[in-house]
């Protein structure tokens, strides 16, 4: 793993980790929310065996990246392309997990000449869709979307997660067996503390800004401009982002292929995501 940072013209830092080898098929990994570049550590190790080079970027406010209050989904695209340019990557695939799915698709819509394929994993959809929006559980979605200000939204996030994420693992009752097996596996436990620290490096700012960005829906990019192949992977047992999200995204995305896995949930969908990326790299 190679952690790096680069500076943007506005003075913000952008942090990223490179989990692969030069010459392998590059994949920009768009992490979940809350999340960080460290999310891709386990995936990166598995991906190397399949000839994939995973580059995972901290969105603003997470990990090594500076906050960027008021950002939209599309506002992240220049950060990502700057990382790709710094690594000499002209063309690459993207993978978007949970919250990160919209960012992966936004990249493909805004820079269609550079994105070869997209895979999403248990990703959120355009939250203008009433049924998908209503299916999302918890105050940290609807409460933040409906909050009167960013400050009020951050209070809701802090009440749920704790400023440092210390409450994050509470309220996981009802997860499918596959998710519980993933979260209790020793490999996950070994990296959990570092991962949580990166997620909440700037308190709950980054998570709040994620929710404020997706709460308005996909208004900052045109999903119809996506031209590359897209595989939409989702666990049908997901209790965090219910499967209706995947079905709606499949109805919106040109060239989208929906792949559902009945036993899997939100956290356990990584293996089929990596398999889909390897399949696309071979095409």
Break the fold down into its secondary structure elements and pairings.
Elements: E1 2-7, E2 13-18, E3 25-30, H1 41-49, E4 52-57, H2 77-86, E5 92-97, H3 100-110, E6 115-121, H4 130-135, H5 142-145, H6 150-161, H7 177-183, H8 186-199, E7 201-204, H9 205-215, E8 230-235, H10 244-252, E9 256-261, H11 270-282
Parallel strand pairs: 3-4, 3-5, 5-6, 6-8, 8-9
Antiparallel strand pairs: 1-2, 2-4
Helix pairs in contact: 6-9
CATH class annotation: Alpha Beta
Give me the CATH architecture, please: 3-Layer(aba) Sandwich
* Unreliable residue stretches: none
Spatial shape: globular
Beta-strand portion reads: 15-25%
Counted beta strands: 9
Derived from helix and strand composition plus strand pairing, the structural class reads: alpha/beta
Q: How many helix segments?
A: 11
- CATH 4th-level superfamily: Alpha/Beta hydrolase fold, catalytic domain
Describe the structure.
The chain has 283 residues and is α/β, with parallel strands linked by helices. It has a single domain, classed as Rossmann fold. It is built from 11 helices and 9 strands. The protein has helices at 41-49, 77-86, 100-110, 130-135, 142-145, 150-161, 177-183, 186-199, 205-215, 244-252, 270-282; strands at residues 2-7, 13-18, 25-30, 52-57, 92-97, 115-121, 201-204, 230-235, 256-261. It has an 8-stranded mixed β-sheet with strand order 1-2-4-3-5-6-8-9, with helices on both faces. α3 (100-110) links the parallel β5 (92-97) and β6. The longest helix has 14 residues, at 186-199. It is globular. The protein starts with a strand and ends with a helix. The mean pLDDT is 95.
């Amino acid at each position: 793993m190679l952690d790096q940072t680069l500076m943007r013209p506005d003075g913000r830092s952008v942090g990223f980790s490179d989990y692969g080898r030069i010459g392998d098929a590059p994949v920009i990994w768009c992490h979940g929310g809350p999340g960080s570049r460290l999310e891709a550590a386990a995936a990166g190790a598995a991906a190397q065996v399949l000839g994939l080079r995973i580059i995972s970027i901290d969105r603003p406010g997470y990990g090594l990246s500076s906050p960027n209050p008021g950002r939209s989904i599309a506002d992240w695209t220049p950060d990502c392309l700057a990382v790709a340019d710094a690594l000499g990557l002209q063309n690459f695939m993207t993978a978007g997990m949970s919250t990160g799915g919209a960012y992966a698709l936004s990249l493909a819509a805004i820079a269609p000449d550079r994105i070869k394929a997209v895979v999403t994993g248990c990703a959120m959809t355009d939250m203008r869709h009433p049924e998908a929006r209503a299916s999302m559980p918890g105050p940290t979605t609807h409460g933040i979307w409906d909050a009167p200000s960013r400050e009020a939204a951050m209070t809701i996030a802090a009440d749920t997660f704790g400023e440092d994420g210390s409450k994050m693992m509470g309220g996981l009752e009802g997860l499918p067996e596959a998710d519980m097996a993933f979260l209790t596996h020793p490999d996950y436990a070994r990296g959990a503390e570092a991962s949580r620290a990166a997620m909440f490096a700037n308190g709950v700012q980054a998570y709040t800004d994620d929710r404020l960005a997706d709460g308005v829906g996909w208004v900052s990019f045109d999903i119809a401009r996506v031209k590359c192949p897209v595989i939409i992977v989702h666990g049908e047992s997901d209790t965090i982002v219910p499967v209706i999200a995947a079905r709606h995204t499949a109805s919106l995305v040109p060239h989208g292929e929906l792949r559902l896995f009945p036993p899997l949930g939100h956290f356990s969908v990584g293996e089929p995501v990596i398999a889909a990326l390897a399949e696309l790299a071979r095409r």
